[in-house]
Specification:
The protein has 184 residues and is mainly alpha-helical. It has helices spanning 2-64, 68-103, 106-112, 117-129, 136-139, 153-159, 161-168. Helix 2 packs parallel to helix 4 and helix 6 (153-159) packs across helix 7 (161-168).
C-alpha cells in the first residue's frame, strides 16, 4: 500500500513539473514573439522615414534643376487624388451644420450660420441644457389655482365664499363642502 502512495505521489510531482515546464516554454515563445513584433514595427517606421526623406530629396533636386513642370505635375496629381475626400468632408460638415442650426431658435440661426462646427455644437448643447429660469416678472400675478388663488380651502371659503361655492358646485366637485360652513 505504501508503495502505491509513493508511486502516485511521484506521478503528481512529475505532472506538476511538466505543467511548469510548459508554462515556461510558452512564456519564452511569447517573449520572443513580442521581440520580433517590435523589431518589425521599428523597421516599418524606419522605412516610412526613409521614404519621406527620399521624397524631400527628390523635390529639392527638381527645384535645383528648375524642373518646375515635373514638380507641378506631381503636386497636381496629389491634389486630384485628395479632392474627392475634401468634397465629402465639406458636404458632411454642411449637413451637420444645417441639422444643428435647425435646433437653434429662429433668432439665433443668423448669428451662428457662419461659425465653425465645434462652436455650433457647443452652443446647441448649451442652449439645449439650459432650462428657462423663472424670473420675478413671470412670478408676479400668478396665483395658486388649486385653491382659487388662496393658500388653502379654508382661506378660499372665508375670503371668497361665492367663488368657492361656484367652484365646488361643478359636476366634478358637487356636494363637496371642504372647509366651508354655510351661514344662514
Amino acid at each position: 500500500m505504501s508503495e502505491e502512495k509513493v508511486v502516485s505521489n511521484e506521478t503528481e510531482v512529475e505532472a506538476g513539473t511538466e505543467n511548469v515546464t510548459q508554462d515556461n516554454a510558452q512564456n519564452e515563445y511569447i517573449a520572443e514573439s513580442k521581440k520580433y513584433r517590435k523589431r518589425a514595427q521599428d523597421a516599418e517606421s524606419q522605412l516610412a522615414n526613409l521614404k519621406k526623406q527620399l521624397e524631400s530629396q527628390e523635390n529639392a533636386k527638381l527645384k535645383q534643376k528648375e524642373e518646375y513642370k515635373t514638380l507641378a505635375e506631381k503636386y497636381e496629381a496629389q491634389v486630384n487624388e485628395l479632392n474627392p475626400f475634401k468634397e465629402k468632408y465639406e458636404t458632411l460638415v454642411d449637413q451637420r451644420k444645417s441639422k444643428l442650426l435647425e435646433r437653434l431658435p429662429e433668432d439665433k440661426r443668423e448669428i451662428f450660420k457662419n461659425k465653425d462646427l465645434d462652436v455650433l455644437e457647443f452652443m446647441v448643447s448649451e442652449l439645449k441644457t439650459k432650462a428657462p429660469e423663472p424670473s420675478a416678472r413671470n412670478l408676479v400675478g400668478t396665483k395658486n389655482t388649486e385653491f382659487g388663488g388662496y393658500s388653502s380651502y379654508v382661506e378660499w371659503a372665508t375670503k371668497d365664499p361665492k367663488g368657492y361655492e361656484q367652484a365646488n358646485n361643478t359636476v366634478k366637485g358637487k356636494g363637496i363642502s371642504l372647509g366651508y360652513v354655510k351661514e344662514n
